[in-house]
Structures are given as structure tokens and as C-alpha cells.
Specification:
Helix content of chain B: over 70%
Number of strands of chain A: 0
Oligomer: heterodimer
Number of domains of chain B: 1
Number of domains of chain A: 1
Shape of chain A: globular
Structural class of chain A: mainly alpha
Shape of chain B: globular
CATH topology of chain A: MetI-like fold
CATH architecture of chain A: Orthogonal Bundle
Structural class of chain B: mainly alpha
Radius of gyration of chain A: 24 Å
Largest sheet of chain B: 2 strands, antiparallel
Order of helices and strands of chain B: HEEHHHHHHHHHHH
Largest interface: A-B, 94 and 100 residues
Strand order of the largest sheet of chain B: 1-2
Amino acid sequence: MRKVKKGIVYVLFAIPVVTQLYPLLWLLLYSLKTNEEIMGGSFFALPKELQWHNYKDAYESGSYLKYLSNSVIVTGITMICVILLSSMVAYAISRFRWRYGNMVMTIFLMGMMIPMQATLLPLMVIFKNVDILNTHLSLILPYIAFSTPISVFILSGFMKSIPAEIEESAFIDGASIYRIFRSIILPVSVPPMMTVCILTFITIWNEYILAATFISSERLKTLPFGVYTFVSQYSVNYGAIGAFLVMGALPVILIYFFLSNQITKGMVAGAVKG
Amino acid sequence: MKVLKVPARTIAVFVLPCLLLYVCLVFVPILVSFGTSLLNWDGITTPKFTGLSNFRDMFWNDPVFWPSVRRTLLYAVASMLEIPLCLLFAILLSRYLKKGNTLASIYFTPVILSVVIIGQLWKTIYNPTSMGGMLNGVLIALGLDSWTHNWLTEPKIAMYSLYFVSLWQYFGYHLLIQYTGVQNIPDEIYEAAKIDGAEGFKADRYITMPLIVPIFKISIVLAFIGSLQAFDLVMVMTAGGPAHATDVISTHMYNSSFLSLKYGYGSAIATFLVLLCLTCTAIINSIFNKLERKYS
């Protein structure tokens, strides 16, 4: 009886493995088929011959590397700024003796409930007026702004738990507040910073709508927007479309493969603390 | 512990860069949006002040608005209904497997992918068989030919096809949140309960359930708020079509602002969305606070 029950549970566990992974695997197979094989509609068949040239076609007709490097630039700059700016604010909130600390925290917390898309139109009008529409800056600025609340929250939660004695003795030894922040607080706060990095990376790397609204030049597009453009414009070869999708997913999948534990922990921590 | 007394200038150096950026890019736009909602403006000609007439049109004269609100709320409800299933899986995972983590991170894979990839992948899956769609292929192979549909172009079905993709993508996310919650319940409690004769589902009912309420609440809030803001997946897959059949609040806002160039009207919808999100968060929080008090 026990064994039967265990068997049933294992079958139950297997179902989501199939439903969550098979579509991704199917996409991989799809990207290696000819048009005829795809239209033939045999959804589980392996390609007769692996059509690697689909990847070559996709690579040559889209600007994959351009999109990729744009995404790296935008996400990288955003992550650095988020870490730096939000750890400064978090430090001020958790340690300084000043009247408005809680108020600042509340302002940040309120922002977590505001839907990003409600700011699309006003931001576009503002950016048009200061003439930064269709630049990477028009993405990086709102990305930083929308990533800070959760980061400030996570970092200040951690910094409150750092024992104050370290800072006091450093203070007595004559270290300035900037020195303390740079040489004590920042190095100690690496673990929560990793969480912030992961959350910011996943959100910003995958962001599509802001990019699609604010960017129009082909050479400035980030990866998700680039993939979208490619798929909607290139319609001759289904396999190549599949190949471009796989290439679009590849960076994040690779990172997830090596860091899945850190990523899942970081995302759950972000959710639970938020 | 607030230990450091620092001059105001230092505080400003630490706080102002981030705070100013944040206020200018989140709060100011929202206020601008409130202001724009009172105008009749196409973004090019001089705006005309029309008071609350945009809101009047939205509530009484727009045939797309209320259905899109209904779809958004249904979206929210559908994604909340998924969470008990996630909790069940989380409990089973932690009971039957020593290393449930690996399985949980496999379930989690779709969460890390961009909506563009997810959307295009499912568009391909939903395609008619003549274009290589997988779902209809599976149905035909199972002999269920009559169940095949044009999943994204039949107005009656399209919205449900979208709900499904969303549930599919976030299954692993909520499962992992619940799983972490279950893992964090100390083993001693279960051991003590075992001595008192509570095991298996009895232990789940009287130990796991009450202790998981705070985590459960987080999942519910995330799912609810996330679906109210549901946007990019719909944009990528159908952009609100066919004939507004899959419009949710956000896509209606986007299409009104950027396609019909009714900036004022779009802003009115955005204002409604912001207020809806704030109200719903407040309501859910107060409900769960009551629940928690009841159980503790």
C-alpha cells in the first residue's frame, strides 16, 4: 500500500516536469527542423537531419550580437547603479539618526505597488521633452527607479542586523562615515547584494514593454525586443524563427544552469521579503 | 539601532541621489498621469482641459472598458486558484523527497524566461496544425479532433489560452515560495506532533496550514497584484485582439494612448489602474491580517 502511494506521488511529480520542460525541448527540436517537417505537424518526431543552418540563417538575418551587447550594457549599468544607490539609502535608513528615515522608507514601499505601465505615457512625454527618447538612458533611468524599492527594502533589512560596535570602534579610530561605508558596510553586505543582483538581473534582462515603447532604432534594441522584432518580421523560415527564440533564451538558461540554487533562493527571498 | 549622528549634508549625499531619481521617475509620472487624465490631448496639438469627461466616457460610453476590467479580475482570480495546487505540491515534495530542491528548480525554469520568449513559444504551440502547432497535433493524435481550436483567434477561447500560459509560467514560482515556507517549519514541531498522534494529513491540517498562512498570503498578493498588472504577455501574444476579445486594463490603456493617440483618455485608464492596485492591496492585506490574528 505504501509503495503504491509512493508510486502515485512520483507520477504526480513527473507531470509538471513534462509540462514545464517539454515545451522548451519542443522549441529546441522545432528550431532544428525543415519547414516541411514543421508543417507536417508531427509534434513529437525528431528532425530527420539536424538543420543547423537554421541557426546560421537566424544569426545572419538578425543582429543577435548587437541585441545581446545592448542587453549586457543596459542590464549591467542598471545593476551597478541599483546596488550603489540603494545601499547608500539603505544605510542611511538603518543607521543614521534623523527624523525622516521612516518617511523615506514608506515612500519607497508605496512605489512597490505602482504598476510600471501606468508611467509609460508620462515618461515618454517627459523623455521627449528632455530629448533622451530612443537612447539607452531612457531605459536605464526607469529601470533603476523601479528596481530600487525592493533593493532598499532587502538591504536595509540586512544592515539593521549588523552589530553597531564595529562602526563605533571604527568611528573612534577616526574613520569618516564614507570610509566606514566603503570599507565595512559594503563588504559585509555582499550576500543581500547578491539577492538584489539576481532580482534586478532577471527583471531587467527580460523587460520588453519599456524597451519597445522608448526605443525605435534597430541598433539600440535589447534582446527581448530584438527577438520580438525578428520573429514578427522574418516569416520565410519557421525553423530560423525557432532558432532565434532559442538563441534569445540561451544566455539566461545558461546562467540558470550554473546558478540555479542562488537564483531560486534570490527570487524567493525577493518575493518573501517584499 | 540608530547610532550615527551625522550632519544633514552627509544624509543628503547618501539619500538624495536615489530618492530624487525615484521620485522623478515613479511619483512625478503618476502625478502627471493624473493631470493628463483631465485633458483632451493627442500629444501634438495644444491640450484642452475637459475636467472629468474622460472618466465619464470610460465608465459609461466605452464598450471595451468594463469587459477589460472583468477579464483583469478574472485573471487575478484564476492565478490565485493555482496557489492551493502549488501548496499541495510543495507539501508532497517536502514529504516524499529528500532533495526536492532539484525538482523545484526544474519546475521554476519558465519563470526566468522573458515574456517575449514565452509568448512566442506558446503562440507557436497554439498555431493551427498546418503551421506546425503542437497542441492541436497532440489533440488529433489522441483522437480528439473535435477539441482542436484556433486557440488565439477565436474570441471566446483566446482569453483562456492566455490565462493558461500565465498559470503555466508562474506555477514553479509559487510552488517554490510555498516549498521554501514548508521547509522552514522546524522538524521538532512535527516530531512532537507525531508523539501526540498527529501524522500525515492530520499534521498538515493542524501544523503546516496555520504556519504557512503568512507565506500563502505572500503568494496570493503577488499573484493578485501581478495579474492586475498583467500586460506584457497579452501584448506579445495578441495585443488585445481579436476585436478586443483579450483586452485587459493595461492593454486597453496602451492601445488608447499609443495607437489611438488619446493621451488624456489613456491616462484616465492608467489612473484607474493605479487606484485599483492600491485599493486591492489594502483590502487583501486587511483580510489576511484578520486571518493571522484568528490563527495565532
